[in-house]
Amino acid sequence: xxxxxxxxxxxxxxxxxxxxxxxxxxxxxxxxxxxxxxxxxxxxxxxxxxxxxxxxxxxxxxxxxxxxxxxxxxxxxxxxxxxxxxxxxxxxxxxxxxxxxxxxxxxxxxxxxxxxxxxxxxxxxxxxxxxxxxxxxxxxxxxxxxxxxxxxxxxxxxxxxxxxxxxxxxxxxxxxxxxxxxxxxxxxxxxxxxxxxxxxxxxxxxxxxxxxxxxxxxxxxxxxxxxxxxxxxxxxxxxxxxxxxxxxxxxxxxxxxxxxxxxxxxxxxxxxxxxxxxxxxxxxxxxxxxxxxxxxxxxxxxxxxxxxxxxxxxxxxxxxxxxxxxxxxxxxxxxxxxxxxxxxxxxxxxxxxxxxxxxxxxxxxxxxxxxxxxxxxxxxxxxxxxxxxxxxxxxxxx
Amino acid sequence: xxxxxxxxxxxxxxxxxxxxxxxxxxxxxxxxxxxxxxxxxxxxxxxxxxxxxxxxxxxxxxxxxxxxxxxxxxxxxxxxxxxxxxxxxxxxxxxxxxxxxxxxxxxxxxxxxxxxxxxxxxxxxxxxxxxxxxxxxxxxxxxxxxxxxxxxxxxxxxxxxxxxxxxxxxxxxxxxxxxxxxxxxxxxxxxxxxxxxxxxxxxxxxxxxxxxxxxxxxxxxxxxxxxxxxxxxxxxxxxxxxxxxxxxxxxxxxxxxxxxxxxxxx
Lengths: 398, 266
Description:
- The structure holds two protein chains of two kinds.
- Chain A is α/β, with parallel strands linked by helices.
- Chain A has one domain (2-381): Luciferase-like domain (TIM Barrel, Alpha-Beta Barrel), CATH 3.20.20.
- Helix content of chain A is 41%, strand content 15%.
- Chain A has helices spanning 34-53, 74-84, 103-116, 133-136, 143-159, 198-207, 219-234, 258-268, 270-273, 279-282, 290-297, 315-320, 329-343, 360-381; strands at 2-7, 57-60, 90-95, 121-126, 165-168, 173-177, 191-194, 210-214, 246-254, 324-327, 348-354.
- In chain A, helix 3 (103-116) links the parallel strand 3 (90-95) and strand 4.
- Chain A starts with a strand and ends in a 17-residue tail after the last helix.
- Chain B is an alpha/beta fold.
- Chain B has one domain: Alpha/Beta hydrolase fold, catalytic domain (Rossmann fold), CATH 3.40.50.1820.
- Chain B is built from nine helices and eight strands.
- Chain B has helices spanning 46-51, 76-90, 102-113, 147-154, 158-161, 170-187, 221-229, 246-249, 251-264; strands at 8-15, 18-25, 30-34, 55-59, 95-100, 118-124, 208-213, 234-239.
- Chain B has an eight-stranded mixed sheet with strand order 1-2-4-3-5-6-7-8, sandwiched between helices.
- In chain B, strand 3, helix 1 and strand 4 (55-59) form a beta-alpha-beta unit.
- Chain B is globular and about 45 Å long.
- Classes of the chains: A alpha/beta, B alpha/beta.
- At the A-B interface, helix 10 and helix 11 of A face helix 6 of B.
């Protein structure tokens, strides 16, 4: 089991939520104080480096025009981390390539970071949440098709070393691709893709990339992982899907005492409860299928929304639904065990360990408590050599 | 011809590999009607009014109604080529052309290609060009606002024109959702226009009528006037108590005005 400290580098100093219609896309940036923002960047970078000192890997992501994640050019932050950190793996999850006009430029950025970090890059790619569409002026229709054409081109760009090649695809056109530098890691840095649906996970499995899913709880996570394994097997990659191909992201806070854990976990819920986004940003036409939209118009919930109906969420309900693991080390371990067994296991745990007003000291407390009291036990229980798909706890294996 | 007696025929015609849904009604000189982003509903009141005088031909654009949408198609210009092929398949040479909203955009694309075959052109709340300043959308971004606000811009009487998915059949809702998706595909960038189109419109030299509803909050009077000005022989008309779709909110008034123009325009 490998664990990652994930911070969205949020800017939490906002006016009351009822004074604006959306925390994303349209919230005026006059609210953002660059001086406070600079201090926040310093602090969030420090927290990543503390996680590294504690033996935890580093993860970041990219969003645009939002207070929830002030990291609109994640490769820049990653470049800083490549120089500031020394040993941690560096996961960007991810590059929103359906919204980037030049996949080759993304391949260059990632190759450069791999070299800068002496081969520590883990390159993630995401389709992007729906509220990224408008900031990128990106067409919400045919995003999946663009995503896969871009990703396949990026991998080819990394792995072609004999001078220029051309690409005349459906969405992207290049006459002479020959990037400098090329990545250190061979044949290319590990590739991650995040999806939250079984159908989305199948092509990830077919390519053998690492599949991450965010806040999908118990049943939905199991379906996503099943979808991945189906894609893996149907592509002829063999029956056994290694555990390290699967990742789960949860809100995680470990406290020395139950009271401290609860207080930290409550602040972490900001990540979910602050995400105020109106439907016209949350569901642009074409982002989900016609059939899904028809069901929604006829009364079903938005299946996309990891945040839907979570306004009144409590720590207890978040833990209950498997999107949060919070408590003392023993409690958190038990929660992870339960989730792990239910979904068929995963080798990567992405820890949303900072959000909103979780201050520096409390964030560091959570990182250290996890790294020292939970992580070693997870590593002992869940070896990286395991096969996914059924309970695999060491000494208790099926 | 009364509403009851006009004959409406629905066919599927293979055009450029696309199964195109085509409605035909009435007899007489051919009139190609190009629907808006909302799609075509054969129950709409304007249909018999036109079919009483003309051979009304209404294709569902690719990706709308029950027409297919091929992978390669992503622009109004593509659709213009599809409809040109449809006209050939139907044996239509000279014809009148009416387009609503994005249908007006497609009509303009068609008219720039074969101006000599378009007898008269009527544009109802047309989009497709950009004439205003760089830092202001000519056409408001209806996808970036709550649906109720968009409805207010698009309708004179939003309450009366409201569609309730819960009272519609699953088929109807599916078509509505798919129409909206295709609309986004075609209009997202550049927003609701083809930058080339306005430089081609001087060739569209048949008599043209540009119509808008007085309450249209989407296509402004200034936009309509600027659009009409790009054609050598265009004039404008405003219809009261109608928004972006006067053919739906004032079908009788609209039909009378357009038919009058098609019959009598010099």
